[in-house]
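hey m, so remember when u said the tokens were messed up on ur end? i reran from scratch. heres the input so u can diff it against urs
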Amino acid sequence: ATAKGIKNNVEILEDKKNSKIETIVDFIENHEVDLVVIRSRGLSRFKQMLVGSIASGIISHSKCPVLVIR
């Protein structure tokens, strides 16, 4: 991507005060992110209901496109 002139950035976020979803969405809003690429563990619907899904939360709350990779 870099060779084609596409800028990319990888960030490791840590925030002990907020949820993971809130931390990621705050970062997206404060850093003019154009696209979020996130991995999904591929949990079943039942397990997602029990555990919750960070990918689903980011999709629901992000103001930019989210690409989920399985």
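this time it looks ok to me. The chain is about 35% helix and 10% strand. if urs says something different then somethings off w ur setup not the seq
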